[in-house]
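=== RUN LOG ===
request id: a7f3
mode: sequence -> structure
chains: 1
length: 425
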Amino acid sequence: MGKCLYFCTLIQNNENMKSIAILTGGGPAPGMNTVVASVAKTFLRDGFRVIGLHGGYSALFTDRPRMQDLDFLTADEIFNKGGSILKMSRFKPTAEDFEQRFNLQFFTDNEVKLLVTVGGDDTASTANRIAKFLAEKHYPIANIHVPKTIDNDLPLPNSSPTFGYNSAKAQGCVLATAVMEDARTSENWFVVSAMGRSAGHLALGIAGACHYPMVIIPEFFNRTEITVDKIINMVVSCIVKRKLMGIDYGAAMISEGVFHSLSEEEIRNSGIHFSYDEHGHPELGKVSKAHIFNDLLERKVKETGLKVKSRPVEIGYEIRCHTPIAFDLTYCSLMGMGVHKLFHEGATGCMVYVDHQGNAAPLYLKDLQDPATGKIPPRLVNVESNKVMSYVNDIMDYITPADYEAARKYVANPEQYDFKRILNW
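=== RESULT ===
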């Protein structure tokens, strides 16, 4: 207790001490508080003041940032909890924001030596812009990013996961297993949609762990355009195949990324009604992908005459603020301590990377960026990997040429529902 009181009192009694600032951007992921707490604890031991910023990057572009001092007792209390003690935001600064509203006075008045940012691909891309901006202006402020996202789509070496992914997948598996048990019990079908804006890691990870007979991710469409018909025909392929196997129930896992990859023409022609933004783009974030896919499936089932009842289930917001599992508690602690290590080694403009042995190293954002856009490109699922192809070939159920004759009992043109033919594999 004496050591804790020392750290807490030290901050209150010395407002001019050197500081670090930490913010969280994007959406939540299990382990956010673990990172924040681990960073805070290590720097507090060095005598730093630790300032938490609320509102993500918006805090850096206002003259009245919402801030909170983080002491040792607070860090110790939050490190194993879900959610984020620091309020999050998807704020993306414009070029005008950088030139006219960047609050350098916050850094100078508070003797901030390091800015720690925690977030996914968008947050990492903005961290890259801040690193460049600080370097161009010759501001002596280090900048280190901690990569998080339940989507697992940041380009870390050696297939290392982004923090939060394993915890989200674990909780997603609990939900997906219950859904499949409901399907078995009620002899119904479920259309399940999992988060993953541009990559299918989460949907594939949950579906693979739960032995779902069908999963659809955007990376599957590497040889053909994604269309609504192809997505729904793949689900029908699974339904018919399982009927041939004497099974009248099941569940299909669809990554929301396939929806975001549809052309606007496909979306408009789907018959689903959306609200549109001021630029005329459909506001996809406001709708349940599971409900849309299920509605489209029901239309197709009615058209073909298949006797199938289906229900939609969305796996998304329920898993973002879940309590982190032991893997992420350890991983995020190592990342927080890794920030401390990299800072004292003089690293800046980088992401912290922790390998399987727990060694921390810098990944420089300038080396990861797309040279044309400056953004950090997403890491996609390698559909040609043995892990993915083993699941596709050995666990999933779908029509193949050997099933054509028997499948005509249920659909007039089984070739149209051949999974690999749909994908042009």
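=== NOTES ===
The chain has a mean pLDDT of 90.
The chain is about 45% helix and 15% strand.
=== END ===
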